[in-house]
Every structure is written in structure tokens, then in C-alpha cells.
Amino acid sequence: MSVNVAVVGATGAVGQEFLTVLAERNFPIKNLKLLASARSAGKTATFNGKEYLIEELTKDSFKDVQIALFSAGGSISKEFAPAAVSAGAVVVDNSSAFRMKEGVPLVVPEVNPEAIHKHNGVIANPNCSTIIMNVAVWPLYKVNKVKRVIVSTYQAVSGAGAWGLYELEAQQKAFAAGQPILKEKFPHQIFNNVFSHNSKVADNGYNEEENKMVLETRKIFGDPKIMITATCVRVPIPRAHSESINVEFERPITADQVRQILSKAPGIKIVDDPANNYFPMPLETSNQDLVYAGRIRQDISRDDGKGIDLFVSGDQIRKGAATNAVQIAERLV
């Protein structure tokens, strides 16, 4: 069944990736509408070899639209998603606006696809770091319940938006030319540096990204008691987030058992070659949809056999955003 689709935020990094993923996956589109801010209206974008005019987003933009893919920021989602729903569309929203709202499914299709059809017009796409972690942790959780997760992230600059890429590139060029390195939007120089994720630190001492990973995972897993602590860091990598994950299980488990479970899990590729020191890298996970998992080893800090360490990497613009949303949309048609 072909459907009428609108892409909101069509000129942004994720909006452009929506178009790439929709084309690659042969999503059944009858009519496509590309929506963006007034300053982008009148520009064009190409989809499947055809030029489409970008229209200004208004509350009247959604007539006859059946699926609306939103990636234009939380304030835009809050303002315009209700209009899309009122017009009869199902909104798949990539912002944080509705993720923790009661009654709004928060979905990673490899984890909780059954939640998709419980929507009331809006389905939320989780945070990119949450998605990448959950694709790897959930298959383990199903076999041997996970009690606690300690995760540290290594997050690419494009996770902040296209401007993150521009800022890293500008600083690289300035350094190469012997010119002063200027900060624009990031709070610190990102070239030759790493720093705590550039989101607001809450009263509990955790920044927004870290709190998202905790709260969203509990909702997605349907387990309010799972213990999670996160440290999120921005690194000078263009694309693809990586994460170091320590998992505590309810029962003892071996590294070989974890490797076997993940080798059969959807959305995962095992990259775990200690002899050649070859493990997941953002260079190899960029521009594709699988989450790579490796460095799978027993946690030697405990003697009960219930701890495992692993390292994962995944493209936060694709699986962490656009692809996850399109996978949700595929289950709606």
C-alpha cells in the first residue's frame, strides 16, 4: 500500500537522511511533501531522481498526509505535530518533545515493535545514543535479565546537527593553515579535544543526554527498575557514535554466550577480532544501519560471572535517527 508522506525539517541533516533511507528501502510513497522553515521554502531537493519543491511548514501542510516524519527540533514538533495528527497523519517524531509523554510509544523496532500500534497519532523516535545501546543490550536482556548498565559514549559532532560538522571542519582548516581556531556553537574547541556532551547539566549532576539514556531505556524496555548510569562525551569524529558498555546480569553469563546471542540479533554485526586488534570503529559504521559490537569480554572486576564489557558503534544519523524512524513507518503501512 502506497502512502502520502511528509518530511518535516527536510533540509536538515536527518531530514536529508530520511530521503536517502526512504529511497534505499523502497518505501511505498504515493505522494511526497517536503516541509521546512520559511527561509528554506522555494529550494529543491532530489528524491529518487525527481526534483521536489520545499514548502514552508504551516499548520495547513498536512492535508491528505498519512505519515509525517518530523526532524526539526522539539519546539517545532510541539507546535506542528498536533496539526498533522488532526489532519489524519501518524507522526514519527525524532525530537525529544514526546518521548517521555504518557501514551506515546517510544520505539526501537528491534526491541519493542509491538508498541507501534498503540499510538494515538504520535510515535517517538528515541535519542540516538539510546537506540545504539539498546539494539545491543536488549537481545541480552531477553536471555538473561540485565540489572545494571554503565555506559560511556563517544559522540560524533554531527549528532549536534550539520553545524557540528561545519565547526569541526572549520577548526581543522584553521589549524592546518596556522590560523586561530575559533569556537562558534560548541562550548569548547572540538578539534584535538574531547569534552562532556554539550547539553545542559541537570540538578542530579547528569546532563540531558545522560538522563535521556536512563529514562528512555526504562520506558523502551518496560523496566522502570533497570539501573543505568551514563557519561556522554563529544569527540572530534564527523559521524557515528561509539559506546563502552558494562552490563550486569541477573545470572552468570560468559563472553562466548554474549557473542552467540548478539550474532543472531537483528541489527547487530559482530566485529570482535582480538588477534588483529580489530573492533567496532565509527569509520566503518558511518553511512550504514548496523550496530557493530565487539570487545566482548568478562568483567574481571567481579568474581560472580555476572558482568560483561563490550564496545559498540553505530551511525547516529541513520540507525540513531532516520533509519529507526523509517523502520517504524514501515510497520505502519
UniProtKB/TrEMBL annotation:
<dbReference type="InterPro" id="IPR036291">
    <property type="entry name" value="NAD(P)-bd_dom_sf"/>
</dbReference>
<comment type="pathway">
    <text>Amino-acid biosynthesis; L-lysine biosynthesis via DAP pathway; (S)-tetrahydrodipicolinate from L-aspartate: step 2/4.</text>
</comment>
<dbReference type="GO" id="GO:0046983">
    <property type="term" value="F:protein dimerization activity"/>
</dbReference>
<protein>
    <recommendedName>
        <fullName>Aspartate-semialdehyde dehydrogenase</fullName>
        <ecNumber>1.2.1.11</ecNumber>
    </recommendedName>
</protein>
<dbReference type="GO" id="GO:0009089">
    <property type="term" value="P:lysine biosynthetic process via diaminopimelate"/>
</dbReference>
<comment type="similarity">
    <text>Belongs to the aspartate-semialdehyde dehydrogenase family.</text>
</comment>
<dbReference type="GO" id="GO:0071266">
    <property type="term" value="P:'de novo' L-methionine biosynthetic process"/>
</dbReference>
<dbReference type="GO" id="GO:0009088">
    <property type="term" value="P:threonine biosynthetic process"/>
</dbReference>
<feature type="binding site">
    <location>
        <begin position="11"/>
        <end position="14"/>
    </location>
    <ligand>
        <name>NADP(+)</name>
    </ligand>
</feature>
<dbReference type="InterPro" id="IPR005986">
    <property type="entry name" value="Asp_semialdehyde_DH_beta"/>
</dbReference>
<feature type="binding site">
    <location>
        <position position="316"/>
    </location>
    <ligand>
        <name>NADP(+)</name>
    </ligand>
</feature>
<dbReference type="InterPro" id="IPR012080">
    <property type="entry name" value="Asp_semialdehyde_DH"/>
</dbReference>
<dbReference type="Pfam" id="PF01118">
    <property type="entry name" value="Semialdhyde_dh"/>
</dbReference>
<dbReference type="GO" id="GO:0050661">
    <property type="term" value="F:NADP binding"/>
</dbReference>
<dbReference type="GO" id="GO:0009097">
    <property type="term" value="P:isoleucine biosynthetic process"/>
</dbReference>
<feature type="active site" description="Acyl-thioester intermediate">
    <location>
        <position position="128"/>
    </location>
</feature>
<dbReference type="GO" id="GO:0019877">
    <property type="term" value="P:diaminopimelate biosynthetic process"/>
</dbReference>
<feature type="binding site">
    <location>
        <begin position="158"/>
        <end position="159"/>
    </location>
    <ligand>
        <name>NADP(+)</name>
    </ligand>
</feature>
<comment type="pathway">
    <text>Amino-acid biosynthesis; L-threonine biosynthesis; L-threonine from L-aspartate: step 2/5.</text>
</comment>
<keyword id="KW-0220">Diaminopimelate biosynthesis</keyword>
<dbReference type="InterPro" id="IPR012280">
    <property type="entry name" value="Semialdhyde_DH_dimer_dom"/>
</dbReference>
<keyword id="KW-0521">NADP</keyword>
<keyword id="KW-0457">Lysine biosynthesis</keyword>
<comment type="subunit">
    <text>Homodimer.</text>
</comment>
<feature type="domain" description="Semialdehyde dehydrogenase NAD-binding">
    <location>
        <begin position="4"/>
        <end position="119"/>
    </location>
</feature>
<feature type="binding site">
    <location>
        <position position="208"/>
    </location>
    <ligand>
        <name>substrate</name>
    </ligand>
</feature>
<dbReference type="GO" id="GO:0004073">
    <property type="term" value="F:aspartate-semialdehyde dehydrogenase activity"/>
</dbReference>
<keyword id="KW-0560">Oxidoreductase</keyword>
<keyword id="KW-0791">Threonine biosynthesis</keyword>
<feature type="binding site">
    <location>
        <position position="155"/>
    </location>
    <ligand>
        <name>substrate</name>
    </ligand>
</feature>
<feature type="active site" description="Proton acceptor">
    <location>
        <position position="241"/>
    </location>
</feature>
<dbReference type="GO" id="GO:0051287">
    <property type="term" value="F:NAD binding"/>
</dbReference>
<keyword id="KW-0028">Amino-acid biosynthesis</keyword>
<feature type="binding site">
    <location>
        <position position="234"/>
    </location>
    <ligand>
        <name>substrate</name>
    </ligand>
</feature>
<keyword id="KW-0486">Methionine biosynthesis</keyword>
<feature type="binding site">
    <location>
        <begin position="39"/>
        <end position="40"/>
    </location>
    <ligand>
        <name>NADP(+)</name>
    </ligand>
</feature>
<dbReference type="InterPro" id="IPR000534">
    <property type="entry name" value="Semialdehyde_DH_NAD-bd"/>
</dbReference>
<feature type="binding site">
    <location>
        <position position="99"/>
    </location>
    <ligand>
        <name>phosphate</name>
    </ligand>
</feature>
<comment type="function">
    <text>Catalyzes the NADPH-dependent formation of L-aspartate-semialdehyde (L-ASA) by the reductive dephosphorylation of L-aspartyl-4-phosphate.</text>
</comment>
<dbReference type="Pfam" id="PF02774">
    <property type="entry name" value="Semialdhyde_dhC"/>
</dbReference>
